[in-house]
Amino acid sequence: MAQYYSDIYTAVRCIPEGRVATYGQIARLAGRPNGARQVGYVLANASPEQALPWHRVINAKGEVSARAHVDYEDYQRMLLEEEGVQFDLRGRVNLKHYQWQDSDDKEA
DNA sequence: CTTGTGACTGTAC
DNA sequence: AGTACAGCCACAA
Predict the structure, then answer these.
(1) Domain spans of chain A?
(2) Is the CB of A60 under 7 A from strand C?
(3) Is the confidence at residue A45, as pLDDT, over 60?
(4) Is nucleic acid strand C under 7 Å from A4's C-beta?
């Protein structure tokens, strides 16, 4: 499969426990600064075998992205709360406090 | 190749 | 703070 997928998988798996990352952030780590949507597409098609912490990936609003079934959104929120991520009264996460501070910039 | 769709994001009002 | 619009990339038909 495309290296693109592997990069996304790697980026997602780099998200530490109790932290969250936005789709744009993952896309940037995967080398696709403008591929936030593709990250969502990949995660949507990702097999459970990939063991991806997809629950740590949320949108730029700090909200759990809408999926086909609302039950899954609640499930994702539950997983995050299990890791210590707290949601506000409106079901959103304070990115200023829980967003994963990735230090990938080096590479070179 | 063209069109439509989607777990998104940033800018403008 | 919330809503609207446009830009973005990958994939199925």
Answers:
(1) 3-98
(2) no
(3) yes
(4) yes
Q: Which stretch of DSSP H or E encloses residue A11?
A: helix A3-13
pLDDT higher than 70, residue A80: yes
The separation, in Å, between residue A97 CA and nucleotide B2 C1' comes to 44
For the stretch A51-72, pLDDT in tens is: 999 999 999 999 999 887 888 8
Looking at CATH, the fold of the domain delimited by A3-98 is given as Arc Repressor Mutant, subunit A (1.10.10)
SS (H, E, C) A32-92: CCCCHHHHHHHHHHCCHHHCCCHHHEECCCCECCCCCCHHHHHHHHHHHHHCCCCECCCCE
